[in-house]
Amino acid sequence: MASGSGSGKNDVTEQLVSATLDVSRAHLALSGMIEWAPASLRGDAVDALDTLEQALSRLREVVVQLELLAHQT
């Protein structure tokens, strides 16, 4: 039974890592487009990048916490 619960944690961790990678790719794509964006859109694009960066940081923290929990059990 313990392996079943560990497997569930691994599934959640894998999904979270996948979401983190998606956010990271979106951040990278947007950061590459900012220099080409019209000046009128750059402020919004920078705000979006900041939001993605904050989300990415939180996602990474959660991944680390889940990994620590997985190793405690």
Describe this structure in words.
The chain starts with a helix and ends with a helix. The relative contact order is 0.17. The protein contains two helices and no strands. The protein has helices at 2-34, 39-72. α1 runs antiparallel to α2.
Rounded mean pLDDT score: 85
Q: What is the share of helical residues?
A: over 70%
Order of helices and strands: HH
Residue ranges: pLDDT <50 for 5 or more in a row? none
The end-to-end distance, rounded to whole angstroms, is 12 Å
SSE-based structural type: mainly alpha
User: What Rg is obtained from the alpha carbons, in whole angstroms?
Assistant: 17 Å
Strand fraction equals: under 5%
| Beta-strand segment tally | 0
Number of helices: 2
| Largest sheet descriptor | none
Shape: elongated
Brief account:
92% of the residues lie in helices and 0% in strands.
Q: Topology of this structure?
A:
Blueprint lengths: L1 H33 L4 H34 L1
Helix pairs in contact: 1-2
Keyword list:
single chain; 73 residues; mainly alpha; 0% strand; elongated
